[in-house]
């Protein structure tokens, strides 16, 4: 049994070594994910294997599983399975780097989630970042587009390293678990590092160009796997020691603003993969906000604040699970729909191979995949619909419960004693409510066009309804994820009990314990996802039964286009759908009219991308000036550098 | 606020006649169960028919008492009242309007000067748009003929 927790690492490493064979490599990844689940079940979620390094007793490294890491291991393993199983079909040519990157990223994430010390954590973090980058590189036409991801990743690693150094310098320990009184600087640096990694705004600006052509499984890895590691880190570090109030307030507010920003960008996005990508920004913002409020409440004295803290922490788990399931489903379905010959042989799942000099036309826009259901691609269409509905908080899917928990958390801001906490929690609630509304808008657009829209009619009908390749594994993955999304929503009490959150469950007013999820003590709000699901089935079942037994009689009428004659190919596009929001909120979306030879469209920009661009330009100017000044080609300057370095090393070494 | 059909009847503004037409009238589509929303379209009549439509809206006839209402646009109409013989410049507009009425719909034609070959054109235009010409009122004597045809088509429902 003690070997079992190390088995996933071996399997992922083997998968990376065999990356030339896509099927074999993904087979090892699947085995690694399954053995992860087996390890958690076999050890009961508790495991420890610590080694002392060198003569200093305080320097220990090793692996450790506790409730938090087990929870995130289970969620991660489900997402790893979801992204690996479609790869077993082996129909993605030239995917060596992708297979290598994915396996090693899983390896890194596993290290992060099981590390008992900062050294292993940092190692896993760096492996995850570098190999996630490698997994992306074959799928972008210019490597420049993903450099920003690497830059943010390295910034994150740097902050983590600084935090670890602070921890070691002050507490003389490497341990992540036992540092119960960790210095504030460590908590601040480390939590900032994971926030950077969670794609929280403004650290999301690498996404727009990078996601454009990513295959479903790589996009799911970036959106779910990597950010889950960030969420785990956040919960781990915020649970360490006392955190200053202002830092928690900042994190909470940043989370809420990020949720708002991500939802807004998703609502006006045109890219097929950009809408789910920006919804990651939104979701991780919500998770950050919940984690911040949880940590704020944890320092409270009263039992109601203590309960609020554990309720918000439960919200983090539910939100993480719902995000992992729904996003994996969305990206698997998108990959499934885009990777057969539906759109011509040139469009193969993201399109570009390792050594392809002539990039084929890829399916990148919502309009490219329009009308999936009417083209006969029912299963991916259903997958996108169910995943999207979960993000739109549609009951009884688990996304609904997650967002309900978060809103209930912010509604209880009155329980805080200090004005600043009350104000920030309430203000966050405002931004979160806006975000939830806008993401529902974005998902309405997404489902409405990709799933339910009419096909554009620009393609020959011979390509429609005739997928040449069977994608049974993708189909199976989609069905399993759909069942999980509905199942975890309906049977949420079971999920919470499995993740050790049963204190949040109770019974009231005829609802037996533990079917009721209670948001506050003294009683504030309750919901029973199970009863809610039963109610929905009954209440919607009766009208549907009545409707289906009666004769359908209704009248139809042609759409009125203001009397303007339409050409047969003319459609109301998804861009047009979101233009009203883009225009009204132009202060945020920076919408401007683009007129190219009478072809008028509304362009939107992410203002934060521009801010990073300005920073880059400024650094370019400063860097050029500095290099001209100090790296000026004169030998005397270089001799001076060497001497200064020598003296500094001598002094440091002596001290 | 007074409920106009009752007020008209109790204050004796409104006649109490129940109209029945002797003209051949096809039954309405079974979709229409209760009230009817009527929209008159002037196809180029002598204006006398327009006056009659205005008269129909007065308290004297009070068509609301029998469930007949005037729709604000063709898209809200169940029955079209086609007034007069279509003149050439209005044919295109008529076709466009017919296509804006939810299908199925009914149409009643009052040719004013007796039916001619335009009747064939009108029947085809209405059927092409998914409706059916249920009656042609010839001879036409006054607004009571319109009420009679509509009441007959409604098969006596909403007796006053």
How does the major sheet of chain A shape up? 3 strands, antiparallel
If helices are DSSP runs of H or I spanning 4 or more residues, what is the number of helices of chain B? 5
Q: What do the pLDDT scores of chain B average to?
A: 87
Order of helices and strands of chain B: HEHEEHEHEH
Tell me, what's the shape of chain B? globular
Rg measurement of chain B, Å:
15 Å
First and last CA, distance of chain B: 21 Å
Number of strands of chain A: 7
- Largest sheet, strands/sense/barrel of chain B: 5 strands, parallel
Rg over C-alpha atoms of chain A, rounded to the nearest angstrom: 26 Å
Helix content range of chain B: 25-40%
CATH architecture of chain B: 3-Layer(aba) Sandwich
Shape of chain A: globular
How far is it from the N-terminal to the C-terminal residue of chain A, by CA?
A: 47 Å
Name the chain pair with the biggest interface and residue counts per chain: A-B, 8 and 11 residues
Quaternary organisation:
heterodimer
How many domain units of chain B?
A: 1
Strand order of the largest sheet of chain B: 2-1-3-4-5
Q: Could you state the order of secondary-structure elements of chain A as H and E?
A: HHEEHHHHHHHHHHHHHHHEEEHHHEEHH
| CATH fold naming of chain B | Rossmann fold
Structure report:
- With 655 residues, chain A is mainly alpha-helical.
- Chain A has helices at residues 7-17, 22-43, 67-84, 96-114, 118-136, 144-171, 184-197, 207-211, 216-238, 245-268, 274-298, 303-338, 378-391, 398-411, 419-451, 472-490, 492-498, 529-549, 574-584, 586-589, 607-630, 635-654; strands at residues 47-52, 60-65, 505-508, 511-518, 526-527, 592-596, 599-603.
- Chain A has 22 helices and seven strands.
- In chain A, a hairpin with a 2-residue loop joins strand 3 and strand 4 (511-518).
- Chain A is globular, with a radius of gyration of 26 Å.
- The model of chain A is unreliable at 341-360 and 457-466 (pLDDT under 50).
- Chain B is α/β, with parallel strands linked by helices.
- Chain B has one domain: Rossmann fold.
- Chain B contains five helices and five strands, in the order H-E-H-E-E-H-E-H-E-H.
- Chain B has helices at residues 4-10, 48-56, 91-98, 118-128, 143-153, and strands at residues 36-42, 68-70, 79-83, 105-110, 131-136.
- A five-stranded parallel beta sheet of chain B has the order 2-1-3-4-5, sandwiched between helices.
- In chain B, helix 4 links the parallel strand 4 (105-110) and strand 5 (131-136).
- The two termini of chain B are 21 Å apart.
- Classes of the chains: A mainly alpha (655), B alpha/beta (160).
- The A-B interface holds A 553-558, 560, 563 and B 30-31, 75, 96, 99-105.
